[in-house]
Structure formats: C-alpha cells, structure tokens
Design a protein that fits this description.
With 485 residues, the protein is an alpha+beta fold. Helix content is 36%, strand content 29%. The chain has 5 helices and 23 strands. It has helices at 2-19, 27-59, 136-193, 198-251, 297-307, and strands spanning 73-75, 77-79, 82-85, 88-97, 100-104, 109-114, 123-124, 129-133, 254-256, 261-266, 273-274, 279-285, 289-295, 314-321, 324-340, 345-352, 366-372, 376-383, 392-397, 400-412, 415-420, 427-429, 442-444. It has a 6-stranded antiparallel barrel with strand order 4-13-16-15-14-17. A 5-stranded antiparallel β-sheet has the order 3-18-21-20-19, with no helix packed on it. A 4-stranded antiparallel β-sheet has the order 5-12-10-7, with no helix packed on it. The longest helix is centred in the middle third of the chain and has 58 residues, at 136-193. It is elongated. The two termini are 65 Å apart.
Length: 485
C-alpha cells in the first residue's frame, strides 16, 4: 500500500516537475508526507493495544482471596525444673609425678650387671635389682670385720674371767681382815684381865693393818679389771658397728628400685666405674601421679567458702587420646603455697587414683579436669540457647511467648543455670529466634498445627501453603507486640 502510494507520489512529482517551469524537482514535499503518514499509522496501532489491555483488565474474572494466617514458628521447648544444681567447672592442667628419685651409687666400684628393665620409659617394681657393683672388696671388708669382732669377744670373755677372780680375792681379803680385827679385840680383852702383854696387842694390830692394806689392793685390782671389761665391751660395740657398716656397704653394691616406678633416664653400663653419689638412673613413682590445675581467685574463693577446705574434693581427670577420652578419678590433696600470679589464680594438686586404669598416665600429659562447683539451691537448668540477651528467657503459654527476667548463676557446658521469674514445670523456649518477642506464636516440633483465624485488624492478603519450618514463617503477617523491628 505504502509502495503504491510512493509510486503514485513519485509519478505525480515527476509530472509536476516536468510541468514546472525550468524543470525543478518536487521530492522534499513527498518525503514529509510519507513521514506524517507513517507516524499516524504507528500511533493508531499503539492506541489499539492500550485499548485492548484496559479492556482485558476490566473484563478479567475475579480470583477469590484466602484470609491471611498469622506467622507461626516451629520451635523446641524444654520444661523448667526448679531444683538444687551443682555445675561442673571445666579446667585444664598438667600431669606431674608426685615423687621422683635420683638413684645414686652409694659405693664406688665397677658395674658388673645392669637390669634389662633399666631403660627410659620401662616400668620396674619395688625391690627389683637394677644395678650391681663389684662385691669383692666389700665382701672382704665384711670378713675382716667379723674376725675383729670375734677376737674382741674372746678378749671380753678373758677379761670377765679375771674380773670374777678379783672379786673372789676381794671377798677373801675382807674375810682375813675380819678375822684379824676379831683377834685384836680378844687380845685387848685379855690385856684388861692381865692375861696378855702390850707386845701381843701391837703384833695383832700390825696384822690388822696389813690385812686392811691387802683388801685395798684387791679392791683397786678389781676396779682395774672392771674397767678392762667395759673397755672391751666398748671395743665390741665399735666392731659390731664396723661389721654393720661393712655389711651395709656390701648390700649397697646392689641398687634396688625403692618403689613401683617408671625409669625416666638411666646412665649405667656394664664395666663403667662409678663413684659415690654418681647418678645412675632417675625414677618416678608410677602410683603417685598428680594433676596440677589453676583455680581463679573467684573460683577458689567460691569453693573454699562452701566447705572451708578443698582437701578431699573429688574431681575427674580426662585425658583425650586421639579422639577417645579416658577418665581417671582423682582427689584434691594439696594447694599451692603461693598465688600463681603468672597463671592468674591458685595452683591445686589432685592425686590420681591408678586403680583400674586401662591406659597408664604419663607426666606432662595435658588433661581436662571436671571439678564440682558450689551447690546452688532453687535454680533451673536450661539449654544455653534458651537465654536471650544474657538476662531473658521466654515461657510458652498457650503457644505464645512470654518474656521472663532471670539472673545467670553459672554455666555448665552447654547448659545455663538461672534464677528469677520462672515457675517450676512451665515450658520454656529453647530455640534461638531473631524475631523473638512477647506474644509471638510458636508451635512445638512434632505438634499438630491448630487452625487459628487471622488476627484482628490484619490486612487481607494471600498465605503461602505448606508446612512451616523451624525459624521460618508460613505467611507474611504483622509482628507481635514487643517484637524488635
């Protein structure tokens, strides 16, 4: 159509051009007419399309709307139980040997035998022979000490025999003196009656004097002999000590394990010459291991204030080997003498009970310790996910949340111990919801949803079908009162 118009316009233009004087062309007029015609046609098409759109909108069928449903959250809840709770402190420490000994040579000599168990890391039992030193010289010292002692004992017997003889001589001299004194007394009586002379009395007095002198000499000899006996007894005691010393030195040629131990290090070889006090091995008692851990000032004061002492408090030591935790019972036996300022608290030592342990501990192991904390009365234990803002929980009443204020008493693993506006047995929200607030509608996991009408004043809208998911909503709805924007 346009082509034909253009053709006709061209023919008429050519005719006009030919008819115009001087043959001037008329093409600009034809171009303007063609543009105006094209614009008019496009405008008509657009107007028709707009008319058709509005006609379809006005004549479309109405779709029935579904009343809006309130936003529902699928949550997990727990019952609140008011009781007495003792949380566990989770601390970390290090295993230490409570008793360590340096096994030293007590005598000098050449090492002639070393136990096969005297190796670093090996276990030895109390009384096991670990190292033997050449015994020859020490056995000879024992023989010599025994011979000297036997000789001294023989001399003592001899001295005791002489002592008995001197005692008999003293008794005999005493009798002789007594006879002479009686004879002198009879002579004096005869002299008074005139039956004896003065010379007779003088002779008998001389005899008494001689007998008294003999008695004094015997007594002096007796004292000397008693002193000899005592000297010999002292010599025997000295030689007995020498014998014991020689026997002890002989026994010290064998070094024994003083207790059930583990060898930490050893420095003994057959043929080595050792001197007195040389260290040949270092042992630690495998039945006396302790776990050292640090209590903060607050924890130490809290535990000490409850019972007045930490001694005897039962703790659990957990040593994680690979991915398997192994537990050992322990008991607090002592507290550090000073405050460990570099560690920020007080060092506490717990003795580890080895009985029944399948895996033996080793000093230096890094372990976890579970220490019973103070007993709190009238509190509730809840999952830590039930706590909002560090001081709020939400009770579920008729499927709606009700905020409660609580005080956090302690943390125990993934649980929190609280006290406050909470009733025994009521249901508490245990799921974290970002839109949490008073009046929020929730539903327990696994519970059948209840049909609820739209809340008052709700604007009409569409609800998305399907089951709600935890933390998600089923439809869009106004937020409950008190919910954060």
């Amino acid at each position: 159509m346009l082509k034909s118009i253009e053709t006709e316009a061209g023919s008429s233009g050519e005719a006009e051009a030919g008819a115009r004087p001087g043959g001037a062309p008329a093409r600009p007029v034809a171009t303007v007419a063609r543009a105006v015609l094209q614009t008019a046609i496009a405008g008509g098409i657009l107007a028709g399309a707009v008319f058709a759109y509005f006609h379809l909108v006005e004549t479309r069928e109405s779709i029935p709307s579904r009343p809006p449903r309130e936003q529902v959250y699928v949550v997990r809840t727990v019952p609140a139980v008011i009781s007495d709770e003792r949380p566990m402190l989770s601390l970390y420490g290090e295993v230490m040997a409570a008793r360590t000994v340096d096994l030293r040579a007590l005598v000098a000599g050449k090492v002639v035998k070393v136990s096969d168990n005297l190796q670093a890391g090996a276990a030895v039992d109390a009384g096991d022979n670990l190292v033997e030193i050449d015994r020859f010289a020490y056995e000879g010292a024992v023989v010599e000490a025994k011979a000297n002692l036997a000789e001294a004992r023989a001399k003592l017997i001899e001295a005791e025999g002489g002592l008995e003889l001197e005692r008999a001589n003293v008794d005999f001299a005493r009798e002789q003196l007594a006879f002479a004194e009686r004879d002198l007394e009879r002579g004096r009586q005869l002299l008074e009656r005139g039956s004896a002379t003065e010379r007779t009395i003088d002779d008998r007095g001389l005899i008494v004097s001689q007998r008294r002198q003999q008695l004094d000499q015997r007594r002096s000899a007796l004292a000397v002999q008693e002193a000899r006996v005592e000297q010999q007894k002292a010599a025997i005691e000295r030689l007995e000590w020498k014998l014991q010393e020689a026997e002890q030195a002989l026994a010290d040629t064998t070094l024994k394990a003083p207790f059930d131990a583990v060898v930490r290090s050893e420095a003994a070889e057959v043929g080595r010459l050792v001197n007195v006090n040389d260290v040949v091995a270092v042992l630690y008692d495998r039945n006396a291991l302790e776990a050292r851990f640090t209590l903060s000032d607050n924890q130490y004061g809290r535990l000490l204030g409850e019972s007045g002492t930490l001694f005897g408090r039962k703790v659990e030591v957990v040593w994680t080997i690979g991915n398997e935790p192994v537990s050992y019972p322990a008991e607090v036996v002592r507290v550090g003498a000073d405050v460990a300022s570099e560690r920020g608290g007080v060092d506490v030592y717990a003795r580890i009970a080895r009985a029944g342990a399948e895996v033996p501990l080793r000093p230096g192991a890094f372990v976890e310790l579970k220490v019973p904390d103070k007993l709190y009365r009238g509190v509730a234990r809840l999952p830590e996910t039930a706590l909002y803002g560090g001081k709020h929980i939400y009770a579920v009443i008729d499927d709606r949340l009700n905020r409660r204020d609580v005080d956090v008493i302690a943390y125990d693993g993934s649980d929190v111990i609280v006290r406050g506006d909470i009733t025994d047995g009521e249901t508490v929200l245990a799921t974290q919801i970002s839109e949490v607030g008073n009046g929020l509608l929730v539903r327990e996991e696994g519970a059948m949803p209840r049909d609820r009408g739209p809340p008052e004043g709700a604007a009409p809208g569409l609800s998305a079908p399907g089951n709600p998911k935890p933390g998600n909503t089923t439809t869009a709805a106004p937020k409950p009162e008190g919910a954060p924007s």
